Predict the 3D structure of the following.
Amino acid sequence: MINYTERISLLMRDIVARVPRLSYIDPDELLVFARYGRRGAAGAVATCHCICLPPTEPGHYYWRDRQTGCVTRRSRWFVTKSPLVCLGGRRVQYLISFALPRFCDQSLAGSKKAQFYGNAERWLAKLDTIIHELYHIDPQAPGIRRVERCDGGAAVGSHGRTFLEQVAEMVKEYLASEPDPACYDFLRDGFAELDGRFDGVVGTTFRTFPSFPQRYIEFLPSASQPETPAAVRIQALKTPDVPTHYSEHDLVVRQFLERATRGVARRDTRREPAALRQIQLPTGGEIQRAAATQSASAQRRVKSGA
Ligand SMILES: [Zn+2]
């Protein structure tokens, strides 16, 4: 079987070593993992998730009476924090996820990036996406790179024409550096070809699949909770019970099929897979929980998809 996310990780190391504009990235601070994304469906093919932002300032939700404007309910005060992901004792700063099998079939045709590639081969769309996600890492501060409009303001979303153009330039720089084709040849094939040739496509996922480490809410201790007027009721918030600390022990290899995924024992990834558990995913089944406390601009600093 081919471990697709491991191949991407190795390719990223080679890219970072060869493309000077990406030399600020430390590949040991990245973790590539797979999510499920149905082929042919709309949706991101890859996403860069920042997990090194500091906790937010304390905040809370509140509800007002429409007529009087008075606050009637509020949540307890909380901060939003990044999960801790450590591999070999070292903290991971960014997670980069790829939607399988969807990513495997990405092509230049009809994409915004096609304008930069002329008649190039269709698989370059995948190399472009890999460099695109790396380029989202902000070189100056923890977070997702801010993209400025020509007037100096922040662009809506994280892309502008310049961003896409620069990514295409880096794709060409990388290929011009004459890398070993063994590093990127796996991108030439679509999902069906890979699946047939390698007898299965697997990727690294978290034990909590389809969930993965995301920003989470932590309530302030009771002693730090501000006083509340008697007329204001405390509204309980439903917060998902998810792990906040992860290590290499939380990583598991899963096989990605056209319509489902299944757990695979790591030792079996090179031979017939032992199906441990199979999860049938709904059509277009991607599960994502946005951190409820992020403002729109803060959210942009946390993740950016392609
Ligand atoms: Zn992007």
